[in-house]
Sequence to fold (341 residues):
Amino acid sequence: MQVAAPKTELGDNDLAAQAMSGRISAFKELVERYQRRAYLYALGMVYNPDDASDLSQEAFVRVHKHLKRFDRKYPFKVWFFHILANLCKNHIRQRKTREKVIVGSSDEHDMAVPISNNPESIFDRTELQAQVWTAIEQLPEKFREIIILSHFQELSYDQMAEVLEIPRGSVMSRLYYARLKLREILEKMGVEL
Amino acid sequence: MTHEEIKIQLSALLDNELEPDEKRAVGEHLESCPECRREYSKLLKLKEVTSDMHYFDLPDRLRAGYWRGIYNRMERGTGWIVFSIGAIILLAFGAWELLNNFFLSDEPPLILKLGIGTILLGLIILIISIGRERLFSRAHDRYEEVEI
Fold:
């Protein structure tokens, strides 16, 4: 397999098409474009750096394995985040099940997960921004997911609807309530917006 | 439209995700509703704070091995497929040869055929059992439920 190739100005979907025809250098370029966002999305969802690395890499492996299924009518990033979001959700679900078995807890809330994520290691940030990230970590999974997709991955409502497989109207309302909850947590932390 | 629905649309207005007529309606409401104006400015402030947050680059340790990790996983998958095809071909050839030159031949004594036949039968049962277990564990694969 050929690996080394100069960087191109091609769009994501063109690179995906080249990767589909077997050009590993095109796939590598896609990985390089998305690796940071993928890892940090996963880290924001699962907190654990090793799991985030494993899940984001697994998402790329899945993408490569199923490239033939990629519909070029849609942006590559929507398909990619759809796979990554599902991997993270699956991981969180299994972790909750394991924790219930170990602890015997029936608490559904994902805040049972220990927070080991240090915002300083993720963002170039001010004190306020660090508090915002700490507050995001305390959001329930569905809210955290949509806040990260909207605020940090900059997906449109239509793209989020595709990634999360929910109607556009649900994206709109879920994002609003997520922001409301985020503000509520920030206010409890003494941060006034 | 209810007040709650308007508030939901404020969030969408902030993201520039409203249709022109919705935008106009929400704009008109904002002019006459101080509560929604306060709500809008709080949402705006939150968005401003997060939009100024920039991700650091990946840690060096991770960046260095990231592509290699993905490539290794992909290569391993291909390796297993190629290995399996080769093994199937060899096994099929071996079974054919064994059948023709051993079991259907008059030379080896019956007791030897019986002994080797029993060993092979046991081996087949073991392989089926392992295969079934593998299928079961695949159904419980940590990533199996993930939709593509």
